[in-house]
Amino acid sequence: MAKQRIYELAKQLGLDNKVLVDKAKELGFNIKNHMSSLSDTEVNELKNKVKPSTPAKSHNDEKETEKKDNKIKLSVSSIRRPASQSKNHSKHQHSDQAKKRSNDSSNKRRSNRHESDKKQSNKSPKVNKARDLLAELQQKQRAEETTLAKESEKARKIWHEEKNKVQNQNTENQNSQKKDTNEVTNQPEEKKTKKVLGPKILKPSPARNRPKTEENKQKQNQKSKPKRKPAMNRTPQIPVMPEESVKPDSRRNGNGHGRNTGKPGRKGRDNNNFDRRNEHSDKMERRKRKNKHNNHAEEVRKPKTVRKERPLPEVLVFEEGMNAQDLGKLLHREPAEIVKKLFMLGVMTNQNQSLDKDTIELLAAEYGIESKEKVHEDISDIDNLYQKEVEASKESKHQESRPPVVTIMGHVDHGKTTLLDRLRHTNVSEHEAGGITQKIGAYQVRVDDRLITFLDTPGHAAFSNMRARGAEVTDIVVLVVAADDGVMPQTIEAIDHAKSAGVPIIVAINKMDAPGANPSHVTEQLMKYNLIPEDYGGDTIFVKISAKTGDNVEELLQMILLQADVLELKADPHQKAIGTVVEARLSRGRGPVADILVQQGTLEVGDPIVVGNTFGRVRVMTNDKGRRVKKATPSMPVEITGLNDVPESADKFVVFEDEKTARAVGEQRAQNALQKQREKVQHVTLDNLFDTMKRENMKEVGIVLKADVQGSVEALSQSLEKIEVEGVRVNIIHSGVGAINDSDVTLASASNAFIIGFNVRPTATAKSQAESDEVDIRSYSVIYKAIDDVEAAMKGMLEPTYEEKVTGNLTIRETWKVSKVGTIAGAFVDSGYIHRDSGIRVIRNGVVIYDGQVASLKRFKDDVKEVKQGFDCGLTIENYNDLKIDDELEAYEMQEVKPK
Ligand SMILES: Nc1nc2c(ncn2[C@@H]2O[C@H](COP(=O)(O)OP(=O)(O)OP(=O)(O)O)[C@@H](O)[C@H]2O)c(=O)[nH]1
């Protein structure tokens, strides 16, 4: 049988040539490659060897797998090993296998080889040629392999030399790592080569090799704690570096920092980052140095100011809600210190947090000082300021005697004004309208170089309120009782007022010259009111005088001074001036004018002043004789100008440090007063709801009241409001001092009220406005006249009755029918007049056929109010169009009939 070549057999078996060659070699056949031929025996033997493990049907799969395996092996080995090494390795393997087999088949093979050689030499020249070619190819292959191996060996040597150089350098630098470095450098070449050429191996992070900070050390210790062996067994720890970590510097970008992952890309990036970082840090460094330099320069220029430690205040006057900053200012300490102190006291706060009273007190105690809460003063409460000044004067060491302020009281016509006239040597009563004193006057009388201030209060009942106010500033009341008239109602009222004010009374029994004078009777009457003369064991001074003749007036003055001495009246002229308004009015040329009585201190021209709800600066000051003065001492009545508004009588006044404050206070008070007034008008509660409803059903007479002085306004308004007419009451819508002006008319018109002017007249514009608005203005100079008129008007309002009054007769002369308007009658006024609002009756043949209202009234094309006798007019009647020529028209009005 012919010999078969291995590749043929491989093809037949569906195996790779190499596999078959290997198998054949395993069996010890004398073959070289897949071209080698096999004998039949060898073929069979090889088939047997291959067959069991390689079933025919899976040949392809196996082939594939083998191919893959071979490829992988080759690829891996080509990377991992140098060619020569791989060759050696295969040689070794080959030799091992040969050794194994050599024992059992060496002789046999040797003989076979000889045989085959012989056989081959005997072959055809073609075969020999092919063999030679093959041999030649093999030689070439071997030569190439040898060259490659030499080159790789050379390259490896160079690499090792380089590496060793670097390692040696590092070894010198890093003594602690010396040992390990040496170990690594002494490692076998194969291993090292393997490392370099082999696939990437994940290396321990260089981070672990960083110099250990304290923190890192701690962390590492914590981590390694459970793994630690007992201390006794521990050997001195030499850090065993991982293989790669022994050459860290060569991998750390030359600076020992940064992470090296072994990737060139990342290396590069790290380098760049690092460079940038370096650059940045350099800049920072430069900047720092520069700043240092600058700071230093500043330090040189400006020596540091050391804050002076100011002493703590004796008392911490605080307000609740202050914060650490506020308290820091008061205590002359840094707010941070305050916060710290509070923290120590257990109060967690910041500099801006409001603190309560207790905390602030605690803080003061911590500093060892007293604390006092600041009491808020409402400077707009001038009554309070006034009272404070009064109290201050009582404790003042600069008190001086002051003139007594005397008020003369008594019943009407008992001679009060005559007495004052006598005292002032002027005749006031003759000029008084209606013979009644209408104003509070204040005068000073000199008696033996001593002064007595008199307030002339009117005796009429309507002025009782003013009298009571007069008593407030009064030290002594002189009660005038006519000897021929005796005690009257207002005498008793005066006694009550004086007593309630705690003011001592001196009784002046007047009109001793009158024929019916009976002083003992008067004395008896007064004793009923606990006014007991000294003669009767009492302490009331009785003086019998005649104001008319002047008898005993001097003695009365002496008695007043005596009483003043008993009272020891004193004041401090050096303190801030306070006092009371006696009277106020609006002067046309001078503006608001106020008669005031200085009670404490000294008022000077130019003083910023708040008077009631007004304020200003004292511009001109005039005394009771009409002379200008610059100063007003205690108990001195003066008239002042310079206020921004007219104050009310009995208002308090207080002088302020500056005009700004005075203005602020005055404005605040005016605003408060306005608010109060509004609340008074608008406020309706459950308590007053019934009253309000009741008032809604009542008819009201609205009055706008204007007078020359505030006292008259008050007196008149009180009298008017007292008028009682069943079902009707007076409502004073507005009252004030000064002429009747436009706004008064507007207000009266809007409120359907009329205006009463007392001693004042309307301005020209107000007069014309009143006429156009049909507002009634009544002017009076005597109070009771005004009261009587109002009373009559009020009676007129009670259920007024109306009666018809025919005002005119007309005859229709023409009619026109206009669509949308109706019938227009052209009529002639035969008698009287027709008004636009007239009622109208249509009379035809003596019979009233319609009674209605005029709808429109015209003359030619113009609407008119009224058409009088002798004129033509055009008219329409509401809801009636059946108008015919010669119809008679009767115009009429419903007129109010006053109750009798
Ligand atoms: N015979 C006599 N008549 C006097 C005396 N005093 C006043 N009269 C008169 O009494 C009247 C009233 O005097 P007045 O001084 O106006 O009285 P009044 O108390 O001021 O009156 P009112 O201002 O209304 O409060 C006048 O006619 C005086 O002339 C007096 O001493 N003797």
TrEMBL record:
It comes from the Bacteria. The keyword Cytoplasm applies. GO terms for molecular function: GTP binding; GTPase activity; translation initiation factor activity. Keywords: Cytoplasm, GTP-binding, Initiation factor, Nucleotide-binding, Protein biosynthesis. Residues 166-176 have a biased composition (Polar residues). One of its GO terms (cellular component) is cytosol. Residues 220-231 have a biased composition (Basic residues). It is found in: Cytoplasm. Residues 404-552 are annotated as: G-domain. Its main location: cytoplasm. GTP binds at residues 410-417, 456-460, 510-513. The keyword Transport does not apply. Residues 31-307 are annotated as: Disordered. Pfam families: EF-G_D2, GTP_EFTU, IF-2, IF2_N. InterPro entries: EF-G-like_DII, IF2_II, IF2_N, P-loop_NTPase, Small_GTP-bd, T_Tr_GTP-bd_dom, TF_IF2_bacterial-like, TIF_IF2. One of the essential components for the initiation of protein synthesis. Protects formylmethionyl-tRNA from spontaneous hydrolysis and promotes its binding to the 30S ribosomal subunits. Also involved in the hydrolysis of GTP during the formation of the 70S ribosomal complex. PANTHER family: TR-TYPE G DOMAIN-CONTAINING PROTEIN, TRANSLATION INITIATION FACTOR IF-2-RELATED. HAMAP family: IF_2_B. This is Translation initiation factor IF-2. It comes from Lactobacillus mulieris. The lineage of its organism: Bacteria, Bacillati, Bacillota, Bacilli, Lactobacillales. The gene is infB.
